[in-house]
Design goal:
mainly alpha; 81% helix; 0% strand; disordered N terminus
């Protein structure tokens, strides 16, 4: 009787079905980051959130996701990718039910953190299986194109679906929608996904907790700095606590026989530079769609539904470029050139958005820079992933996958928190000088886009000078 691995290795159609299942997982994981955005006012009204506490509907998910990704990667290496993938989807499905049934702000925060934990188990296991299923460079490039499309579509679809569901059904269904999809993935996994190889090792739970707490302290410090002040005792104490925790984490990793993050992995060519660039890419891209959605709704007066429609050209562009061209371009020009050019396009897009007027036109001020940003993301995302993972040893593939996903999520959490603080400070400063709320808002949005452009430009420079040239 053929093993699951043999069938997937020998049957081309099964491999692509497996990729479809894994891309659905990637879609859900990323969608759960963005789908809550337009539902926040309804959630606030029903569950009694304070204005400052509302941010934790987003942060509880992202911090747990980013903080436990390394643990998910390590578990994938030890127990096999499919087993951890299934465990993650089980957690995500039940926590989505819990989130939809939430009766208070605390219960929803806990549910969102559990969703983040489930996603942290899913993401590195899924990416490990993608690299295991497709070895030939041309096929791997195409497979990663679909993978990148799933991520981009998840982010944009989350905004669109969140608006549709909240406007026409209820906010609870932005969480319930995960349940039937999760059950289908759980049913498909044993048939189509490779079982994976178990390896010896131990799980460093303490390291995972320290990494998660460090990220939580940093994000909370940045988010609260606008209210408390950057030099306040609270802000400085949280940042100092975060530094102490990360120092403890590194110290423990160096001494442990089976560390969560072996320091030796950073000797892998391009891994360090690739992860830094992916963090900066996320730190620029996530604020772009976040503030573009706010600009469309709060300045141009779009409804949640029409705002989602306005973002569709970006998603379609990313789908076409990632599936049809990104892999081919990497094969022809190498991942460094594509990564650098993509980040440059993203930087230019953000600079254009940084000049949007109060009475802007969609066709003139939104569509052209949004398409340029989509081109940049399409060119950069897959090469950045390849740079971060492709040179890792087979036994470290899960860890490398977890690390690049961690970098992306940490970059999105810290980048968005920092840029929200910049935008708020700009809006408050402008509110003293102008007579309308919209003038203050547009000042904050411009500052946010410009700050994101700086982050993207830094990623461009690092890609140009520190990512080593080699073929994918």
């Amino acid at each position: 009787m053929k093993t699951n691995e043999t069938m997937n290795a020998g049957n081309n159609s099964l491999r692509w079905i497996a990729l479809f299942v894994l891309c659905v997982a990637q879609f859900i994981v990323i969608m759960d980051t963005s789908i809550i955005g337009v539902a926040l006012p309804a959630i606030k009204a029903d569950l009694g959130y304070t204005q400052s506490g509302l941010q934790w509907v987003f942060n509880a998910y992202v911090i747990a996701f980013g903080g436990f990704l390394l643990l998910g990667g390590k578990l994938s290496d030890i127990f096999g990718a499919r087993r951890i993938f299934v465990a993650g989807f089980t957690v995500l499905t039940f926590s989505s039910l819990f989130a939809g049934l939430a009766w208070s702000d605390l219960s929803l925060n806990v549910a969102r953190a559990l969703q983040g934990l489930g996603s942290a188990l899913i993401a590195p296991a899924a990416l490990t299986m993608v690299f295991g299923l497709f070895k030939e460079p041309k096929e791997l490039g195409r497979a990663l194109g679909f993978w990148g499309v799933a991520a981009a579509a998840g982010g944009s679809a989350g905004v669109f679906l969140g608006g549709v569901i909240t406007e026409w059904v209820s906010w609870q269904w932005i969480f319930f929608i995960n349940i039937p999809i999760g059950l289908l993935v759980l049913l498909a996994s044993p048939r189509y996904l490779p079982r994976g190889v178990k390896r010896k090792g131990r799980v460093d739970v303490i390291g995972a907790v320290l990494a998660t707490l460090s990220l939580k302290f940093t994000v909370y410090a940045i988010v609260a700095a606008e209210r408390n002040g950057w030099t306040s005792f609270t802000t400085m104490g949280l940042l100092l606590g975060s530094i102490v925790l990360i120092i403890l984490f590194i110290g423990i990793q160096k001494k442990k026989e089976h560390p969560l993050l072996p320091m030796s992995i950073f000797k892998t060519p391009n891994l360090s530079a690739g992860n830094v660039v992916m963090a900066l890419l996320a730190g620029a891209w996530i604020p772009l769609w976040f503030y573009l959605n706010l600009y469309l709704q709060q300045i141009l007066g779009y409804s949640a539904f029409h705002s989602g429609l306005a973002l569709l050209p970006m998603t379609i562009t990313i789908m076409i470029l990632m599936v049809g061209y990104s892999g081919k371009l990497v094969q022809k020009f190498g991942f460094k050139n594509n990564l650098t050019l993509g980040l440059l396009f993203l930087t230019l897009s953000l600079l254009l958005f940084g000049t949007v007027p109060l009475n802007g036109s969609f066709m003139i001020h939104v569509l052209p820079p949004s398409l340029l940003g989509a081109m940049g993301m399409s060119l950069a995302y897959i090469p950045g992933t390849i740079a971060s993972i492709s040179s890792a040893k087979p036994e470290d593939s899960g860890l490398a996958s977890g690390l690049v996903n961690t970098s992306y999520q940490i970059g999105s959490a810290l980048g968005l928190a920092l840029i929200v603080a910049v935008a708020a400070a700009s809006s408050h400063s402008m509110a003293i000088e102008v007579s309308t709320t919209q003038e203050a808002l547009i000042s904050g949005f411009r500052s946010a886009f410009m700050a994101a452009a700086v982050i993207s430009a830094l990623g461009t420079v690092i890609s140009m000078f520190y990512v080593k040239t080699q073929k994918a």
